[in-house]
């Protein structure tokens, strides 16, 4: 993870505090090839329910950082399904799946994370596009990040993410109907939090984010933020100026 983010890996030794959100590189399920679905994810119906909709999207999350994790700690994660809700959206049927992960070490709970996953139908070609949201003009800072196929591959490998929309161009364009390789939602969320930490120079206690639109390979992403008192609003903005992800970070006081 340090190498992917261009950070000095020598800084991270036994006893070093693991940066917030980096717990994502742990607890990856080992799935036999025969149990992998056509989209690259494990087939549904084992732990996750057998939802029969073709598209799987990362819709957002909420993380509470309760206690530091140090490199070398023995940690465990307990996962539960909070809810499975069927809805009718503009593009047809969809299912919202809410998960909770509780990561703990010997001192107790460290990260309390909730994830929102959305399963939906492939949009029709004549379906009207979603109304675009734009960030405010008075942001405090902004940075530019350009994803490429190597970055997407390395993040997929690092998090053991087999979803073909991140590396298989024929699949993502011809089967799922996107116009290019899709940037991982967790990668965008991580980039936003890392940028916010660099500018605030504080430790986060709570991070909430929501994905609004996909971001694509080789297209610049603008990371922007605005701080008010103990909270920073953050936005990931696509090349057209529309918001693709927005979030809030609360800081230790």
The largest sheet is: 9 strands, antiparallel
Which parts are unreliable, with pLDDT below 50 for 5 consecutive residues or more?
A: none
How many angstroms separate the termini?
28 Å
CATH class descriptor name: Alpha Beta
* Principal-axes shape call: globular
Order of helices and strands: EEEEEHHHEEEE
CATH topology assignment: Thiol Ester Dehydrase, Chain A
How are the strands ordered across the major sheet?
Answer: 2-3-4-1-6-9-8-7-5
CATH architectural designation: Roll
3D architecture notes:
The longest helix has 16 residues, at 185-200. The protein has a single domain, classed as Roll (Thiol Ester Dehydrase, Chain A). It is mostly beta strands and 253 residues long. 26% of the residues are buried. It is built from three helices and nine strands.
What's a concise summary of this model?
This protein is mainly beta.
List the helices and strands and how they pair.
Elements: E1 55-65, E2 76-89, E3 92-105, E4 108-120, E5 141-145, H1 149-158, H2 169-174, H3 185-200, E6 204-211, E7 221-228, E8 231-237, E9 243-251
Antiparallel strand pairs: 1-4, 1-6, 2-3, 3-4, 5-7, 6-9, 7-8, 8-9
Keywords:
9 strands, mainly beta, Thiol Ester Dehydrase, Chain A, 253 residues, 3 helices
